[in-house]
Negative modulator of initiation of replication
Amino acid sequence: MKTIEIEEDLYLYIASQTKHIGESASDILRRLLEVDGQELQQAQAENVVVSNEEANVEQELVVEAVNTDSLAQTDVADIDPLNYFNFSEISEAGSSTKRFLSLLSGLYAIDGERFAKACVLKGSKREYFSQDKDLLLASGKTSKPQAIPNSPYWVITNTNTARKRHILQHVASEMGLQEFQIERLCEAV
Amino acid sequence: MKTIEIEEDLYLYIASQTKHIGESASDILRRLLEVDGQELQQAQAENVVVSNEEANVEQELVVEAVNTDSLAQTDVADIDPLNYFNFSEISEAGSSTKRFLSLLSGLYAIDGERFAKACVLKGSKREYFSQDKDLLLASGKTSKPQAIPNSPYWVITNTNTARKRHILQHVASEMGLQEFQIERLCEAV
DNA sequence: GAGCGGATCGAGGGGATGCTTC
DNA sequence: ACGAAGCATCCCCTCGATCCGC
């Protein structure tokens, strides 16, 4: 647990978003920040009631969404994300762990913020990513965390190659890369 | 200034959203939550895309809004109980057991008291619900009780999916949900 | 905590299926 | 005897981290 200081009005706002008693600040913030971006469609069409407040908030969120994707468009759709990877150099690295780290480094280079949202990923016990080496260390016995080059992040490293691919594939997919691009990355591990 | 406690990974996530040095937690959260009110209205009408995320947050806000101003008039019965469930999040859970637990958690959130009355349910030998894990353990060989999140209750978990649906359907029905709502919940298991 | 990489095996959880009971 | 309802065995799959090879 970490402690942060926030201004009173913000505090009250967050408290007002409590959905059920016993909910922790973390729970509420996680919900509000919705740090995952995923599929979209599905039958959510049934929403009918619309209050003033919602209308506003909804607009805000739309703005958010649009911003986010327009970033995505300029940064990623126009520029081929694969350009961020020097595959021949990567393939020369002596181990899959090294290649894994380089590839993650490339993903971070594409967009640090999208990476931050995408690397929220854990196993049944271990934390996989963190900016804090010790946090990873604390979540498992011998996870062998290593720093991702040119980024503030660390990853777990003590996994078989298949799992390294899964991790990579998850992050890339969460960041919105195309299927064939993800495939290319996973092959390169 | 107020102090709140949050989980480490969330802390790191928030920190990672820093835009410029010297930015306070409040600044970052305000930006992420978009709560400074203000502008926004304007011709946003043309927005078409609606992500799950928004839809969900919108639903949560509906609950909030209605609760707040309905203190006077109706109460929970009139609000769509389905608003208590974040279906997209639930559907992402990896197992039907997880989904089952989330769904029960939602039912509890709707009304702890009605839940308490509704969860009086047992099999021929096993106790299904209890606030006491050991009581469940004692009533069967390997019932695998698990805690229902954000509630004081435990449920039996070692059942096939069909039975999970039956249990859910029974509780929801006992709590007075409508047929179509119950159906929606059972499908989500 | 310091050698590093990572395949291999073991632990643990999920839940369908088959057995038991009424 | 037959069927329905319910229990929990047992298989499968996921994930962790030990341990061997370099």
